[in-house]
Amino acid sequence: MAVVQLKHSLVVIGMGHDGPDGLAPEALAQIAQAEVLAGGKRHLAFFPDWTGETVVLGAQPDRAVQQLKAIYLQKKTVVLASGDPLFYGIGRLLAEQLPADALCFLPHVSSVQLAFARLKTSWHDAHIVSLHGRPMQALLPALHQRAGKVALLTDGVNHPAAVAQWLIDHYAENHAIWVCEELGGANERVTHWTPHTILEQTFSPLNVTILLRDASESVPDSLPLLGVPEMAIAHRAGMITKREIRLIALGYLALHPGDVFWDIGAGSGSVALEAARLDASLQVFAIERSDLALAQIIDNIRAFGLPNIWPIPGEAPEILADLPDPNAVFIGGSGGRLDALIPVVVQRLQSGGRIVMNCITLEHFQLGWERLNQHGLQVDATSVQLSHAQPIGTLHRFASDSPLFVLQAHKP
Q: Residue 175 pLDDT more than 60?
């Protein structure tokens, strides 16, 4: 098949803060031959003597791409962009909507490359997150993976101080913050902060923010992906959902990415913790009325680096009013208020949602079974009794735990 050569290519040139002084001869030659020069106001300002046609690229990149598509076939067009145009830049949109043989990319060093060079730190293992026009939740996957290095592209809303406040709010203060402003320009500045010291500071909007996690506070890599041993979780003696029971509960809860999960009567938060580790997109709310237990939940959030858990202090069902509707609910404790709790949980549960409830006593099991059935849910139950090997002198026997009744309910 013959390759059609287009008469006019669209050339996309990456620039630094030093403007034309930092461009290679090939890039300067392309600009000299251009009939149309496109770019942001800051980029076009580097060429005050330009006499050809200009296209200002503003806050609506999709519209700009459509405009360029209508121009480049008739007139030689050069697009000016920051750093590497294919790194969170307009290059992606152009590559998606124009033929590959119509495009030519001449990248500059990216701002992230420069930032790590200033810190004298390798970045092959860094997580890159753009918060430009995106919600702060875009940070969750990197923090969920306990990334040691995170490079952030910020904007006027998600600026460095706002990032720091978000880290504090999500118990992720164990990060050093480096703000690298106007890299490569005359006003370049690189400063070091903690989440608490940066809160009142302001910075140039042209910055890359680097988060470096304190490795000394990391969770041991030897922990399993699923089934965290009780000894690794801060809890009151004996007051924790055992590992095997946690795994049974998670199986019945059938969580999916993006689900909202309520852990009511969370105790130390072991079920919430186990769930939150499955996927960063899960929104996990650990509801607990005991101040001591709530403090342990927060300690566990910090220790395991799980910013997708929200500890909620208070009494259910009243405290549930301001939470998003759940896809799954685990009732580990009710404070003797099942009659008041179950109707609220069932009403708020989304269609297709699941409820799992652990019952130690026959009375709680009977009450839960009756109330869940009364509200039209599909209800099932499982009896669980674990036995563990224990030594008797030089021999061993099985010692049985108290039986547990696990209620499972599904909302059609």
A: yes
